[in-house]
Give the backbone structure.
Amino acid sequence: MPNHNVPNELLIRQANVLDPSTGLDGVMDVRLSSGLIAEVGEGLRGTRELDAEGLHVFPGFVDVHAHWRTPGREDEEDIQSGSAAAAAGGFTGVVMMPNTDPIVDRPVVVSGLARRVERESRVRARISAALHVGLAGERLTEMRLLKQAGAFCVSDDGLGTTSAGVLRNGMLYARSAGLPVILHCEDHTLATGVAHDGGAASLAGLPGSPASAEDAATATALILAAETGTKVHITHVSTALSAVLVGFFENRADVTADTTPHHLTLTDDAVSTLDGLYRVNPPLRPDYDRGGVERALRDGVLDFVATDHAPHASEEKELPIEEAAPGFLGHETAFAVLYTELVLKGRLSLTRLIEAMSCAPGRWVGGGGSLAVGSPADLTLVDLSEEWKVGRATLVSRSSNSPYLGRTLKGRVVSTIVGGAPVHDRTGAKFEVRA
Amino acid sequence: METRSFLTLEDASREDIREILDLARAFAEGRVGGALVDKTVCLAFFEASTRTAVSFELAARHSGAHVISLSEKGSAIAKGESLIDTVVTLDRLGADAIVLRHQAVGAAALASRHASAPVINAGDGCGQHPTQALLDLYALSDALGGFERLRGRRVAVVGDVLHSRVARSVIPGFRQAGMELALVAPLTLLPPDAGALGPPVLSSVEEAVEWGADVLYMLRLQRERMTGALIPSVGEYARFYGVSRRHLEGGALVMHPGPVNRGVELSGDVVLDGSSLIPDQVAAGVCVRSAVLALSTGAAQRVAA
């Protein structure tokens, strides 16, 4: 967690404050004290001030889908670099996925990880344990013990669950254990390819995975969520039909859903480059699906955005696309990509974007995503006018597999504050701390 | 000397194709000799091959090149060396051309980004097999009296289009030659978006003959796909998607990239029949690959000069 040796008070002056959860929208001051939001208003006084004129202040972003590769693949990312990347992207909270080596499926792994997070993470990192032992979709994990050890939720992310019966039992038990379930919906009898099963894959000769692989699994998951009453979150929705299915179950089940920046902004055209960089799961879809997912996010059918931040070593990406590992970096580019591609192009309001990056996921993890007085002092300061180019050198992550390398984006995170303390700080002249 | 990699037929223009076929003819007629003297051609075959490997080797030797063959067995490939590292090694050892066969789509494109020597795609997964399509065009031009005579002719590409790199090269190749195309296959052996490939889909060889096919281009059916989930049986496949003598009575020609499954894609009596161009396709391999090597390495300019 953040360094607590900083003065416990900070006054952020003259910022453009936008918080859809409280309706705050305008130039004002925010006073942080003892790790909480103490006061929001005009003409506030404080002992330690920072001038945020021209900057925007949002409730801290929350990413419920991150792979920090720890334990096991610290060459790709660890808690330090992963949390630094999250902080650089404006995220004050994340959920770490359990498909590590060893897999986070035993209480001792959870407690060990929890201790490391406490020592090494700059942001609030919550641990998702596995739903099934070895993510194998057979034996239930010891969910009550996992929760005692510090697990926040359970997931078999990276794999779909092959049997509906097994998934139903998993949901029921998770509900008894009081753990939400995050589901990666994919039917592996259908998802046998490396790209979306469409024109680009057909021309290239790449084995394809159809949209039905996701849609059939999403439908099954939603039906079971409604039947079991379990709190279920469906992650990385990438098809128009899956988004519609989620909408149908909105008021019929305790269900939420997210989609990713890349499924909102890239299409399967990218795979015609045959570059392993563009392999991801679920695959990039045609513009029809991209548009459907965008509409669902705009309408609130998809509740929020999650990045599926998935670092990979270069030797796993610089391969023919069929042999490359699936996944993209996400933390550091998420806001700027969505601001540049959706907000500035008039396809999504800034208010809805902040709702989807901060408020809704903050509510889901609990206690975050709001600037209401008394909330944790987790904030993101952004310069919406700054242009920057995504390059290997600008990335804080230990890996560099971003599909946006070389792109010029608008909107850059200037500072990220967790519990009242800056955990990422590019302030320079713009962001002076007066003692 | 300008060198260029040769990766796909998707981007080849009619003129590009004609240039290669003309040069191939010059090689076949013995008008060019020693085009590749002092050049080193590396054959890097990550996947088994007989006719492609042999004909590339002959093509290189006939033109005077040194040939180094690397196969999966007995090389660093077997020790798990990555594709990029193998290619960079061959490049730095002084290869003037790298001929690559690999099991993954895009392997040749990836290799070409890491080598200064030109890379020639000798087949990448289900992606492309451009020299196969060129030798097919060469053999067919010969049979019909010249490349110009291909224009307006009808060719049906029959069989496992889904898994075929040959299909992905011959389709653009035949199209550039001005031919009319149709695909003949069950939906389980067609790409999901067959429309992206272009041609209409017919449901049997019978129908292709009625459509007026001048050429029946048969694709090989991999043994592991002969029964089960994609097609019910060899018997049913051969009945609807196989060529027998009666299909050729109207004068249609039959082609196949080999190796043929006799009794599956073609009945046994058709393979070496007068209507079959299969032996001509094999024969065309050497001069066409000589031409591709000469153009890729820039040696063709030397020949012309």
